[in-house]
Design a protein that fits this description.
The protein is of the alpha+beta class. It contains eight helices and four strands; from the N terminus they run H-H-E-H-H-E-E-H-E-H-H-H. A four-stranded antiparallel sheet has the order 2-3-1-4. Helix 6 packs parallel to helix 8.
Length: about 210
């Protein structure tokens, strides 16, 4: 899985698609704020409004977010060109009844990818710092560099499998991906520590048995 995933990353990058399919949080896009006459729930928005926008613009991924204490909903999509925006506005006016000419009901702006770069950098720093701290902790606890290095190698192996799966399946890489990686870091190192603890107990038992003999 790791090898195939690396192959997909290289191939997709060479074709200009990018090693991963980045989510809007990482790649930027267009944010459209729409103020409705009624306070719709997110379920109603997903059922009635999102399909209209998808059909009009041709986009496949739309993120929705309600503005607190208002009837305004923010729709985040990939970057829309002029034709897509016009189709988007026409569909909302005909199907939903939004007065797209009224700036108080509909506003649209592009989402910069600058924040996305900072998020990627912070995520890499967080994972790196966590890995180094775990290495130090294991080294202190087991007093053997072999245990520490083995744990980190197993950790990298587990993360690399998931990264390879994301590259092969082209699942959107966004905030959920970061949470997924951090969760794997925690569970993987916990399982490894439990196994290493049993190994240490067995080694100590063998040493005691040899000393007794």
């Amino acid at each position: 899985v790791i090898a195939v995933g690396l192959g997909f990353m290289v191939a997709n990058a060479a074709m200009g698609k990018g090693a991963f399919k980045l989510d809007l949080d990482f790649s930027g896009g267009t944010a459209t704020s729409i103020t409705f006459n009624e306070d719709y729930s997110l379920e109603e928005i997903e059922e009635n409004v999102v399909p209209v926008i998808k059909e009009a613009t041709g986009v496949t991924t739309i993120q929705t977010q309600k503005v607190k204490n208002s009837n305004t909903v923010v729709f985040k999509t990939q970057m829309l060109d002029t034709n897509q925006r016009n189709a988007h506005n026409d569909a909302l006016e005909k199907e939903i009844g939004i007065a797209t000419s009224d700036s108080s009901e509909l506003t649209s702006e592009n989402i910069s990818a600058t924040v996305s770069k900072e998020m990627r950098r912070d995520a890499i720093i967080a994972v790196s710092v966590a890995t180094v701290l775990m290495l130090i902790y294991i080294l202190i606890r087991f007093r053997d560099i072999k245990f520490a290095l083995s744990a980190i190698i197993a950790l990298i192996h587990d993360i690399a499998i998931v990264i390879g799966f994301y590259a092969i399946s082209r699942i959107d890489v966004g905030n959920t991906f970061i949470a997924c990686m951090l969760t794997i870091l925690g569970y993987s190192i916990n399982a490894t520590i439990v196994i290493f603890d049993r190994i240490r107990e067995n080694l100590n038992a063998e040493e005691m048995q040899k000393a007794t003999l």
